[in-house]
Design goal:
mainly alpha; single chain; about 70% helix; globular; 9 helices
Length: about 300
């Protein structure tokens, strides 16, 4: 017997949370490499004589040689909590809000617009919810091997003691601005590619695509959206390490700024326009793999939960 349509969102939060934890475990090393490259003021170039990190391959080798294999999972526990909270908040909000907008006549025949609006709102809500965890994760990933915070609890205490509650929300503005088009575009592109694939194969719109096709749609959606908002992600990371210079003594120059616009200006002024795209290759690789895994697992898990319970 088919389940009522309203029950299909019942396990959206559970599926989103479990999916977030799974993808984080698999893709955390890409995040570590990306953040290290984003925060480096010196040029990212194979011929640079002043840069600690010069290429993705060299960065991987340097991190492994200096800090060991576990360094690729620095901040992993915090990142797992972050992924769980983000997955639950984002997907629950998305599915519920999408259900509400489906009933509005203004969105009839405008599925792409509805998907974008729902994704944008859910992403912004999730970004605000998990921002303190994101700040902690960034600092744990980017701190000196023998310095900085001992663990996430020490980080919370130190940040609150020395920087106040404001320190826990450093980078919130670019995060909110970034998350709306990032998440909204991700859902929109994912549904766009999925619907296009169904039309090519002459499948009904409610049909479930094969795993390989879900991977392709997820990877393409991740690539398209990341290209649009990447500079805001870099600015967010630079803002998150303000006030943390003592914990980053071995990574070259420390970047100093007070707000988003000053950060953008100083990056362009000192590092050039390409400075806004530092770590892009690693980020695109991470985004495509993460999105492919995320949406594939989410769709399959949600289908399984809705039909087994």
């Amino acid at each position: 017997m088919d389940r009522p349509k309203e029950d299909q969102t019942k396990y959206a939060g559970v599926a989103g949370g479990l999916t977030g934890c799974t993808t984080r475990t698999m893709c955390q090393p890409f995040d570590v490499i990306k953040i290290r490259l984003q925060l480096q003021v010196e040029p990212i170039h194979s011929q640079s004589q002043t840069s600690k990190y010069r290429t993705i391959a060299q960065t991987i080798g340097t991190v492994y040689r200096e800090e060991g294999i576990l360094a690729f999972w620095k901040g992993h526990n915090t990142a797992q909590v972050l992924s769980l909270a983000q997955g639950v908040a984002q997907f629950t909000f998305y599915e519920r809000f999408n259900g509400i907008l489906r009933e509005l006549t203004a969105f009839e025949g405008h599925d792409r617009t509805r998907n974008f609006v729902c994704g944008a709102c859910s992403g912004s809500f999730a970004a605000f919810t998990i921002m303190p965890l994101d700040v902690i994760k960034t600092r744990l990933v980017s701190q000196d091997p023998a310095g900085g915070y001992r663990n996430a609890f020490h980080a919370v205490r130190s940040i609150y003691q020395h920087e106040g509650i404001r320190g826990m929300y450093r980078g919130l503005t670019p995060a909110i601005i970034q998350m709306a088009p990032l998440t909204g575009g991700q859902f929109m592109f994912y549904n766009l590619f999925g619907n296009a694939m169904k039309r090519i194969e002459e499948l009904p719109q409610d049909a479930l695509l094969a795993p390989a096709e879900l991977i392709i749609c997820g990877a393409l959606s991740g690539l398209c959206t990341k290209l649009l908002v990447y500079p805001l992600d870099l600015v967010k990371r630079r803002l998150q390490i303000q006030g943390f210079s003592k914990g980053r003594q071995t990574y070259g120059k420390h970047f100093i700024c007070r707000h988003m616009f000053q950060c953008i200006y100083r990056v362009v002024h000192t590092e050039g326009f390409r400075g806004l795209y530092k770590g892009l290759s690693s980020s695109l690789l991470k985004a495509s793999i993460t999105s492919a895994i995320f949406f594939t697992i989410y769709d399959k898990l949600l289908y399984l939960l809705n039909n087994k319970f």
